[in-house]
Amino acid sequence: MNDLNGLKKVTYLEAMKHHQKKLANMEDDRAKLFAMIMMYLSEESLDAVKKEPTWTKIEDEADAEGLWKLVEQKHKVHTASEVKEITKLTARANYQMIRQGGYESIIAYKERFNFALKSYEDQGNKKLDPPDIAMDFFRGLDNA
Q1: Which among 113, 108, 44 is positioned nearest to 79, based on CA atoms?
Q2: What is the pLDDT of residues 90-142, one digit of tens each?
């Protein structure tokens, strides 16, 4: 029985060493990921991100996760406007118009649908009931 406990302890310690090494590698790669995201931002996206109050802290810390969250927040709705009512309307219109493409798999369509729904809800539009969401999804399916 002691051999089994000893083996479990050694296995656990090895797993912890491996985990710590992965964390250290992720910490080392954080600045590289931050730089890569920055490299692919358009001038307009960069300007929008820099307007956020948290930008200075994110930039100083080369916080890749914080930068990604800002980029995602700024690009949830495809509109240049930052007027709340306009982004809300755009998200609602995008959700209502979503349709499966002719050669699009149902999985890809479902992912786009979920993204449009999340964007719709994130902008403060009326919460939809699950049966209504299901019917909206089915309405957008390609009949072919």
Answers
A1: 44
A2: 888 888 999 999 889 999 999 999 988 988 888 888 899 999 999 999 999 98
Q: How far is it, in rounded angstroms, from Cα 128 to Cα 116?
A: 13
142 DSSP assignment: -
Return the residue matching tokens 């699009």. Answer: 104
Residue 119 and residue 69 share a domain: no
pLDDT digit string, tens, across residues 66-91: 988 888 777 665 555 566 787 788 88
Same domain, 70 and 88: no
- Distance (Å, rounded) from C-alpha 103 to C-alpha 137? 17
Give the C-alpha separation, 88 to 140, whole Å.
21
Choose the final residue of a domain: 33, 54, 75. Answer: 75
Task: Indicate if 53 and 20 belong to the same structural domain.
Answer: yes
Residues 6+ apart with CB under 8 A from 138: none
